[in-house]
# Entry
Amino acid sequence: MNCHICQSSCECISRDQLSDHGFVYDLYRCHICGFESKLNSESIEDIYKFVYDENSFINKRLGKFKKGSNPERKYLKAIMDQYANRGIKLLEIGPGSGATLSYAKEKNIVTASLDVSEKNNLYYENECDVDYVFNDINDIQNNFYDAVVMTHVIEHVTNPSEMIAAITKKIKSGGDIIISTPNSNAIFKHIFGVKWWPYLIDDHVSFFNLQHIEKLLMANGFSTINKYTYGSNMIHSLNSYLKRNKKKPSRLKPKEAPQDSSESPEHLKSLRKMIMSITDVLMAPCAWMGMGYEIVYIGKKNEFDS
# Structure
């Protein structure tokens, strides 16, 4: 296996690990740049079919995006505010809840979505009022979009260098790309090792640090506008680690697994938010050193003389 960032050879660092639903994988790391990827025992297409049902990405919490204090919502809102009323054409890949697209529409931004699910695309078109809806990147016009957004997408892609090369063609010279993904240099990744929770997600297959993302984008003709890491995600990391040590992965599909219908009491929700805020402040030095939980990269496609 060769590295998707520097094309050097990768070595297996852990064999026969189990993801959340019992899929077996080996974990590989590039011996030059440290990029990591999974080699699953089953095809990624089969894993997608198992894990996701047709409604899995649709989460209608649009209001929380508008008023939330989550750093990801903050930076996306700030970017959409900068794009407002300028005739900007925005493409979001894997839009999830559609919250970013909905907010962009309010700012008079021309919006487009790319998603493999027809059900999701109908939702984006009807509920989010998206202008253009695609399920195949080859149907998208080249050199057309002023900005492309990819939040929590690239870690699901088996060949990220190929994907970025295809996306680059769709962006105008001088256009922006905004990417977020879990950080493989996060402090809790170093603490928990192969039990780090992003490894355990069934369809997470590629793992990046800031340098990997920057090198990948620069190789495709982008200059860095901004890059940083943020957050610790301590509660989720610790909770995932403890659960994994207490309970074996189950092959039950998410929709078949028993669900806890009880809501957490409001005081516990408030306590959780407070703990998360405190830990993020305490872990801020780690984020400054590139060891926060989440990566944010904003790049601009270089303009070339024609």
